[in-house]
Amino acid sequence: MRTLILLRHGQSVWNAADRFAGWVDVPLSDVGREEAAGAGALLAKAGLLPDVVHTSLLRRAISTADIALDAAERHWIPVRRTWRLNERHYGALQGRLREEVRTRFGDERFMAWRRSYDVAPPPAGQGAVVDGELDVRYQHLGITVPATESLKDVLARLLPYWESAVCADLHAGRTVLLVAHGNVLRVLISHLEQIPRDAIRRIRVPTGEPIRYELTNSLRLKFVAERDCQHQPLQ
Predict the structure, then answer these.
(1) Does the predicted TM-score (pTM) go above 0.85?
(2) From 35, 54, 87, 149, the catalytic residue
(3) What are the positions of the active site (predicted)?
(4) Of 95, 115, 140, 169, which one is least surrounded by beta carbons within 10 A?
């Protein structure tokens, strides 16, 4: 069996404010830092000690991984980072309040942009909240920052990394902790569990709650023991 642990980053300051974040590099809130520490403590309590961690290039995922690993006394394990685990790029919606977008464009379009599989929000234009092409981390890697993404786009850029880097660690017998973002984990869960595309909208991934998967040697899903890692508030 191969063990995979998925962890959505703790609450960010824009989660708390109910803003679309996407590729904007917002930090964790105080609640998010507590969630990350709680997740690490739960991993240690359950004996789920990762051998390697994969994160996005965004600080809310990086900080969550660092805090959780420190709480689990696994701060020393190898870390692999990639833009392919970045949150979905929300285009022109980035930085905007969700309720503002819902009010302006209506429930149907709002939900299509948020939850449908192949509908992307309007692309980011001049004056968008963040111009990722000017960000040194993406310039250095030679990455063309998307102007917007659908969930279909997210899965397309995620799968090459999953099939090479993450699967390589799993095949090597390592317990893998993958710390990423809500939409990235939703499409990965849909891939692992072979959930139909029209049902992806029903997948919910709470912040700071580890999800455990046991995979066969062929990396097919054997069972999900999510209850073994239920998040509890710190005492």
Answers:
(1) yes
(2) 87
(3) 9, 87
(4) 140
Ligand-binding site membership of 95 (annotated): no
Q: Residue 204: how many CB atoms within 10 A of its CB?
A: 8
Is 60 assigned a ligand-binding role in the annotation?
yes
125 is in an annotated binding site: no
List, in sequence order, the alpha helices (H) in the chain. Answer: 13-17, 30-46, 59-71, 98-105, 107-115, 136-141, 151-161, 167-171, 182-193
pLDDT over 90 at 30, yes or no = yes
The response to whether 19 counts as a known ligand-binding position is no
* Summary mean pLDDT of the chain: 89
The pLDDT tens digits of the residues spanning 179-191 come to: 999 999 999 999 9
Catalytic-residue membership of 171? no
- Write out pLDDT tens, residues 110-168: 999 998 999 999 998 755 555 555 688 898 889 988 999 999 999 999 999 999 999 99
Q: 């998010």: which residue's tokens?
A: 32
One-letter identity of residue 140: H
Task: Classify 8 as helix, strand or coil.
Answer: strand
Please list, residue by residue across 184-203, b when 16 or more beta carbons sit within 10 angstroms of its beta carbon and e when fewer do: bbbbbbbebeeeeeeebeeb
Per the document, the length of the chain is 235
Task: Band the pLDDT of 62: cuts 50, 70, 90.
Answer: very high
Topology of domain 2-215 in CATH is Rossmann fold (3.40.50)
Q: Tell whether 204 is in a known binding site.
A: no
